[in-house]
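[recover] target loaded
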């Protein structure tokens, strides 16, 4: 266990600190409560029977840390019922792991002491098509006493989803996955690509048609409904998008999609990178978050009196998100390398503005074709990348959106065209560095309250430590250090 530039935390137990869960509403408390143990055991036994017939031998239980890295504990299938009853041990210091595996500390967490229990979500467990014999389940983290761990990112997303439900609202979300695929050489080598076809070119799809078909097959076999798969702009870059679902489900799916792509890549002697930037200066990998807000089966982004048919609730929600984008970057772009991606003219959404189908706006409104708008209208947060912890990203966007909705905010005027060509200073740029985003985060009462102090502080500690780690790195050094970490 190494601790690098960032010091390890104290060895004494960390004081409990204020609880994120103090003062939770009834709906949010119910959303994060662990069901009774007997119920979990009975449920697990039925799941084990089903998985056994699918030839599953082991289950990988994942959580995503505050640096955006998916970490895992695995159990043999025979141990799943025990894991469902008692959880699997996981150290609290994972909350302050950095993407390079060094460990920092924060005021409320750090050091090797203590333990948490990771519980597999049996409702989301699925055999992995590209990893025969394995199943996957996302995990939620609780204390040894069975209380929700206030630093658990997935429980945070559940709380945010419950906060919307308490207002009679639901959300549909989807996270686009972009990746660069390279020949699997030593990680320190410059990437070499298995195709040299042009951007969006059929040439590229043809070169890798078996590989891409197997990605589609595996995703389909895992119950995911793929909308599109296509070559992207940069060398070796592709994108896949899947059907929208509830926010926590969409975050789970983004983890599942990435690890499925990774597994299929490995079978072809390839390596996938979801890092924000794989070549300094090139167009990077986004992790765009699509969201629509619904009340009673009605899409609130359609049929209203606001711009492009927005209802007042959807407009308030989007205005809240737009206003909070600088601090939301702390959750939506975890890696310092994200700021190399988030630059003008890269379709990354580097400007704090919104616009209908505007690919340079951080908030792009999508209405879909005439006739399908009631179902399709949504907004895309374009500035996020796949180094984000997707649970933090969706939860924080919901929190910012609900704040805007509660305050009945209105959107500023729409921006059409390329903000880079506008009169300088007319369209604000989003933060250009982790330090700028962190400064906005430190001013955000909305995010602090929504995350709760333990999670808010842990994220802050990780961002500060990673910001400092690479503060003097050249773009090439930063890209080389982060290319294979996500
Ligand atoms: N790769 C671009 C990004 O970094 C996005 C391209 C697109 O609009 O799909 O976000
Ligand atoms: Mg794309």
């Amino acid at each position: 266990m190494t601790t690098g530039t960032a010091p390890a935390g104290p060895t004494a137990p960390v004081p409990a600190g204020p609880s994120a869960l103090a003062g939770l509403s009834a709906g949010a408390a119910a959303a994060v409560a662990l069901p009774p143990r007997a119920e979990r055991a009975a449920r697990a036994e039925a799941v084990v029977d089903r998985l056994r017939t699918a030839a599953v031998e082991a289950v990988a239980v994942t959580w995503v840390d505050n640096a955006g890295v998916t970490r895992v504990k695995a159990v043999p299938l025979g141990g799943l019922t025990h894991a469902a009853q008692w959880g699997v041990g996981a150290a609290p210091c994972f909350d302050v792991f950095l993407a390079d595996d060094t460990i920092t500390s924060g005021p409320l967490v750090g050091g090797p002491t203590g333990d948490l229990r990771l519980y597999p979500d049996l409702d989301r467990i699925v055999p992995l098509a590209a990893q025969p014999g394995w199943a996957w389940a996302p995990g939620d983290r609780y204390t040894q006493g069975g209380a929700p761990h206030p630093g658990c990112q997935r429980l945070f997303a559940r709380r945010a989803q419950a906060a919307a439900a308490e207002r009679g609202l639901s959300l549909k979300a989807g996270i686009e996955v972009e990746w660069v695929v390279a020949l699997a050489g030593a990680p320190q080598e410059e990437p070499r690509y298995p195709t040299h076809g042009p951007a969006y070119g059929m040439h590229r799809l043809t070169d890798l048609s078996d590989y891409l078909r197997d990605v589609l097959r595996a995703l389909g076999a895992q119950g995911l409904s793929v909308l599109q798969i296509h070559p992207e702009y940069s060398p070796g870059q592709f994108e896949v998008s899947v059907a929208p679902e509830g926010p926590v489900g969409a975050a789970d799916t983004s983890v599942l999609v990435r690890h499925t792509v990774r597994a299929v890549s490995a079978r072809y002697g390839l390596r996938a990178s979801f890092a924000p930037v794989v070549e300094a200066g090139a167009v990077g990998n986004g992790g765009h978050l699509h969201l629509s807000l619904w009340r009673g089966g009605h899409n609130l982004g359609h049929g209203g009196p606001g711009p492009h048919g927005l209802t007042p609730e959807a407009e308030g929600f989007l205005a809240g998100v737009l206003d909070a984008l600088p601090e939301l970057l702390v959750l939506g772009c975890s890696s310092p390398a994200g700021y190399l991606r988030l630059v003008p003219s890269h379709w990354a959404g580097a400007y704090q503005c919104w616009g209908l189908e505007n690919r340079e706006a951080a908030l792009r409104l999508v209405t879909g074709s005439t006739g399908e708008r009631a179902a399709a209208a949504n907004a895309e947060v374009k500035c996020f990348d796949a180094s984000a912890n997707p649970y933090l990203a969706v939860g924080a966007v919901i929190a910012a959106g609900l704040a805007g909705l509660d305050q009945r905010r209105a959107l500023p005027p729409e921006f059409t065209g390329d903000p880079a060509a506008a009169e300088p200073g007319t369209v604000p740029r989003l933060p250009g560095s982790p330090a700028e985003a962190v400064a906005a985060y430190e001013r955000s009462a909305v995010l602090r309250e929504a995350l709760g102090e333990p999670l808010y502080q842990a994220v802050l500690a990780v961002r500060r430590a990673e910001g400092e780690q690479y503060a003097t790195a050249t773009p090439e050094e930063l890209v080389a250090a982060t290319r294979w970490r996500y």
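[recover] notes: Residues 1-22 have pLDDT under 50 and may be disordered.
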